[in-house]
Amino acid sequence: MSDTTPASTPPSATAPGPWTPTHGAPYRPAPYRPERIAAEESLERAARLRRRMDERRTVRAFSPDPVPEQVLRDAIACAATAPSGAHQQPWTFVLVKDPEVRRRIREAAEHEEKVSYDGRLGEEWLAALRPLGTDAVKAHMTDAPALIVVFQQRYWLGEDGAKRKHYYVDESVGIAVGMLLTALHLSGLAALIHTPSPMRFLGEVLNRPENEKAFAVIPVGHPAEDCEVPDLVRKSLDQVLVEI
Asked: What own/partner pairs with CB < 8 Å and gap ≥ 24 does 21-28 have?
C-alpha cells in the first residue's frame, strides 16, 4: 500500500460543516477507526519518509518559475490539520502571489534586516548566523513565485468585536508551520522560514485584523539552477534521542 492510498471512506462522505467556535460546548465523542497497517509496511513508510525528509534544505536562491497554486493550497490545508491548544486553530495563512505586494514586503523586511545586521542583533547572534551566509538582502522575497505569510491569532475575534483568549498559540502555530514545510517538501517544492524582527509591517501591508500577529514569512518555489546551500551537518539520531 502506498502513502497515497485513500482511506476506505472518502473524506467528502463524512465532511463536517464549516468550523464554528466550540468554547463552552459539551463534549461530543465521535468514532475513530483508522486503518491499521502491517508492521512491515509501517517500517517501509517510516524509512522512506526519513530519507525524503533528510533531503530537505532551506533555500535562499529561488527560480521565478511558477508553481501550481493547488499544490500550495493543499500544503496549507495539510498544515491546518495540526493539533492546537483546545482545538482553537489559532492560525491564518496568507498566500501572496502579487508581485507588487511581495516587493513591498521585501522592501520593509530589508529595512528591518539592515538595522539588525548593522548592530541590533549583537555579535553573538551574528556569529551564530555566519555559517549560513545570510545578510540583509532578501531577494528570495521577490524571486520566489509565492510567499506564505503565517499569522498567529492571539485571541478569537468575533464579527461583533467579542474577544476570547487562545491557548498555547506559539506551540500550535509552530507545529502547523512544521507540517507546512513537510507538505511543501514532499510536494517537490523548496521553502525558507524568514522571521524579520520586528514583523509588525506584515500585518499592515497585508491588512490583517488586530488579533493577528505575524509569525513567519515563507517564500516557496523551486530552487534556482545555480542554487547553493550551506555545507552543514545535522545532528545524528543518537545526539537528539534519549530512550528510557
From this structure: 21/156, 21/158, 21/164, 22/87, 23/156, 23/164
How many other C-beta atoms lie within 10 A of the C-beta of residue 54? 9
Please tell me the pTM assigned to this model: 0.91
Measured distance CA(35)–CA(41) in Å, rounded: 12
3-state secondary structure of 59: coil
d(Cα 113, Cα 120) in Å, to the nearest integer?
9
Grid cell 521577490 is found at: 142
Question: What's the chain's Rg over C-alpha atoms?
Answer: 20
User: Are the C-beta atoms of residues 166 and 90 closer than 8 Å to each other?
Assistant: yes
Question: Exposed, middle or buried by CB within 10 Å (0-12, 13-18, 19+), for 23?
Answer: exposed
C-alpha 184/C-alpha 74 separation (Å) is 9
Residue 117: CB atoms within 10 Å? 16
pLDDT in tens, 54-96: 999 999 999 999 999 999 999 999 999 999 999 999 999 999 9
